[in-house]
Amino acid sequence: MTRAPALTSAFPAASPPIPEKHPVSDTHHGVTRNDDYAWMRADNWQAVFRDPSLLDGRIRAHLEAENAYQAALMAGTADLRGKLFAEMKGRIKEDDSTVPMKDGPFAYGSSFRQGGEQPRYFRTPRDGGAEEILLDGDKEAEGKAYFRLGGVDHSGDHRQLLWAFDDKGSEFFTLRVRDLTSGKDLADQIPDTGGGGVWDAGDDGFFYTRLDDNHRPSKVFFHALGDRSENDRLIYEETDPGFFMDVSGTRANDWIMIGINDHETSEYRLLPANDPSAEPKLVAVRETGLQYDLEEGGDIFFILTNADGAKDFKIMTAPVANPVRANWQELVPHEHGRLILSVLGFKHYMVRLERKDGLPRIVVRERASGEEHFISFDEEAFSLGLSGSYEYDTEVMRFTYSSMTTPAQVFDYNMRSRERVLLKTQEVPSGHDPEHYVTRRLMAPAADGELVPISLLYHRETQLDGSAPCLLYGYGSYGITVPSAFNTNCLSLVDRGFVYAVAHVRGGKDKGYGWYEDGKRAKKMNTFTDFIACARHLVAERYTRHDRIVAQGGSAGGMLMGAIANMAPESFGGIVAEVPFVDVLTTMLDASLPLTPPEWPEWGNPIASAADYETIAAYSPYDNVAALDYPPILALAGLTDPRVTYWEPAKWVARLRERKTGGNPVLFKINMESGHAGASGRFSRLEEIAYIYAYALKVTGKA
């Protein structure tokens, strides 16, 4: 396959930055690598996450030169970006609000004001009435270049609000407590937390995780209101750097649950919510490959687990008095091909969200009789989410529904009467007619015979003769499934003749847990070859041409973009890699980086294993850049990103420019005031999407 003529004429003439070279080498398992651009990693990167002004001047100058270069090449798209932004903003109800959820005497929700960037949190009387604003995100964000709210949780007595914020983009959240009578924050302020907390049963203190210098949630503390944070009681410390940790509660407010996990193993410790001085008790000791989650059930816990070879998970129960593994009893058996995703427990019901034949479904079980029923839906492909309830003793639970053509809908569902009540349908102020669009599900044949699902959305008037441009999105890691959900933003491409496609490649759980296992560690190559197979299938079915396909992915999906660029550059007309994890081997060889040890179960440990080293080296995008005719490439990053550090895409872009043949440009846009999630405001984020879409239109000749 040969590349179609490059659209380099679409970009103005400008010279990219030429970074310095300072060779650094490392040797592992007898293999030596050389890296000319390792200097782009700041020696004080941990301090930079907390204070970006501390970035080394030489690195800052290079990043600013990259921004100047991309701005020069994209200058001609300013009007288009403005139009795209206006379209996408016009599809958002600016003063939108959630449907308040009942809890005791109140109902709690969130809303936006007209033109507001940040959410406001409010409550009303339980059965309706005037809104009381509890927290105004726009007000809290005033004067800050970056601001993101974390967890917001009201106390059980409804008198206080625990809330968190990050004003650097580095995901070090500060916890505050607001008195809801006065509307003022208490003196209690705790920095460097994971972004949320859990009230104890007496509402006189809360549990939270503290992040260490490597951004790992390694300790759980209890803070008594009014006390100094230095006096907070250490509840549990996780000494293994390979495990994440979180703390949560139950809706009945009986238990505090400390969850400890990596990507394949989990462990829980429990303590009574009414006794913060208690020592947490172990449920089941961590055992490599054993996963389990706990959900409240009154005198029992529901346990979602893969124990005993239940690859697609089963549900067990255990008495709260002694929930050790020896006391687990099977409730919902394992069924191959039916992946149980989550469980919600209520006083008289249990609800599970599962995926079968590539589609989600909700199953309600009456606890006394064991009778089960499904909540049915009509469309061919759709997305479901369980919103649950604040309350445990209730017959009503909430769920959300959407498809690629149907705007999001919120339902309350009575588990006894089986009546569903539509509470809200996502409003598209500028108008949306589902009849104008077509959604389809294709199956692309992979090289080994597997069939890879593709979700498609296009306008009814789009000619399917191979001439349409296509944006092909993919992720394919951590078992994350990309839902076939409604997305108002992509309509700006679809209305301009694009086919919008999602490749459900291996590495996600789209076709069960085995689909995930077949796209990780030694089988990671399947993720990349699946994506390439999807591109080729779309061309074979005359939805598009290779030079008309713009591939897009972020984070681990950005790694996917880097891999397919090396493996099949001729198959794509452009590539967009957001916060791309592209220097995989170097990062997995550095145990000091924030997320490296917990990532080894996903990718392999190249420090300890020569086989893992060889596997990662075979696909790591930075290590496999070669003298190839790459398509136009756009990389985006955030300076304070602790998940994919800024120097990964910075180095990748430099090496691409150095080694590539052909004249297609490589652009790098870095937000100097944000992290992994990009801009924090809802409209600021739309500006970033407008930039990406303008790029896609430009490289396909549609700008």
TrEMBL record:
The keyword Membrane does not apply. Residues 486-702 form the Peptidase S9 prolyl oligopeptidase catalytic domain. It holds the Pfam family Peptidase_S9_N. Residues 16-425 form the Peptidase S9A N-terminal domain. GO terms for molecular function: serine-type endopeptidase activity. It comes from Mesorhizobium plurifarium. Residues 19-30 have a biased composition (Basic and acidic residues). Residues 1-30 are annotated as: Disordered. InterPro entries: AB_hydrolase_fold, Pept_S9A_N, Peptidase_S9_cat, Peptidase_S9A, Serine_Peptidase_S9A. The keyword Hydrolase applies. This is Oligopeptidase B. Keywords: Hydrolase, Protease, Serine protease. One of its GO terms (biological process) is proteolysis. Belongs to the peptidase S9A family.
